[in-house]
Amino acid sequence: MAAVCKACEEPLVIVLEPESDDEGQTVDDPQNVPDDLELPCGCHFHWQCLLDQSQAIAISLNCPSCQKYLPSNAQGPSVTNPFLHAPSGAAILTRYGDVQGVVDLLQDANEELAGDVAQLGQLIRYQDPLAGGKSALHLALEKDQEEVVWLLLWIASPVPTDVFPVSARQAAEALQIVRLTNDNAEDIRALRTEAGQTAEDIARSKPARWGALVDAGILRA
User: Fold this and answer.
1) Residues 81-107: pLDDT tens digits?
2) Is residue 74 part of a domain?
3) In the chain, how many domains are there?
4) What phi and psi values does residue 26 have, to the nearest 5 degrees?
5) Are residues 56 and 97 in the same domain?
6) Are residues 59 and 96 in the same domain?
7) Burial code of 193-210, b = ≥16 C-beta within 10 A, e = fewer?
8) Least confident of 61-65, 198-202, 206-210
9) Do residues 116 and 211 share a domain?
10) Pair 108, 199 in one domain
11) Cα separation of 205 and 144, whole Å?
12) Relative to the CA of 146, which of 13, 82, 134, 153 has its CA 20 to 30 Å away?
């Protein structure tokens, strides 16, 4: 294992503080737990340090330390998963946890990519190899991020505009978020994880939260 993180130059461990008993006395010694994420270029980072730079990485696809281009497509061309070994693009999108965070990232990406619709489509449909091939939509459903779910459907699915809740439609229009339904790429709802699950399958596993969307067929590609 590498000695230190390339970002903060601190050891690649997390120190777990000992627990205290009812009398306030510590019962264990501090423990060091490995916290080491290695990128394809060979550079090592703390997970949080890499996450702090995730927006820039998602746009440039370069290592923030050595600047090496990260994507590798060793398994052959793929429209829906072109960056099989790149940093976690889907997780980058959903870890923001709110619509504005996703919008900010996509707006920055749009500027960096000079409005290249095809590449923007690849970013929004990215499938994360570190999360079993899940897309941003899979992860948003897992995390109960309803606003992000509607945003992703707005951008990367042909769901009819009049199906969206008024609040979601007004928010998308106010933020000037375009729909990428003309980039000839796959419907984000059709993407499958390594285990073969679609976004609808994830939603079916949480009926109390997503039953209405499933019953309405909104997540069915």
Assistant:
1) 333 334 444 445 555 555 666 666 666
2) no
3) 2
4) -70, 140
5) no
6) no
7) beeebbbbbbbbeeeeeb
8) 61-65
9) yes
10) yes
11) 12
12) 82
Nearest C-alpha neighbor of 168 from the set 182, 156, 151, 155: 151
Task: Read off the DSSP letter of residue 220.
Answer: -
pLDDT at 22 over 80: no
Answer yes or no: do 48 and 116 share one domain.
Answer: no
For 130-172, how does the pLDDT look when each residue is reduced to its tens digit (9 = 90+)? 678 888 899 889 988 888 899 889 988 999 999 999 988 888 8
Tell me, yes or no, whether 82 lies in a domain: no
Same domain, 98 and 148: yes
Q: pTM surpassing 0.85?
A: no
Asked whether residue 195 falls in the same domain as residue 92, the answer is: yes
Amino acid 86: pLDDT: 40
- Residue bearing tokens 């994420």: 37
Question: Is the model's pLDDT at 17 over the cut of 90?
Answer: no
Question: What is the C-alpha to C-alpha distance for residues 148 and 88, in angstroms, rounded to an integer?
Answer: 17
Closest CA to 202 of 98, 88, 94, 119: 94
E strand or H helix that includes residue 56:
helix 54-60
Looking at 113-156, list the stretches that DSSP marks H as alpha helix, in order from N- to C-terminal side. 117-124, 136-142, 146-156
Cβ-contact 154, 164 below 8 angstroms: yes
Residue 20 included in any domain: no
- Residues spanned by the domain of 201: 88-216
Chain position carrying tokens 């997780």: 91
Pairwise CA distance, residues 39 & 44, whole Å: 6
At CB < 8 A and 24+ separation, what contacts does 174-180 make?
175/99, 175/103, 177/103, 177/106, 177/151, 179/154, 179/155, 180/117, 180/120, 180/121, 180/124, 180/155, 180/156
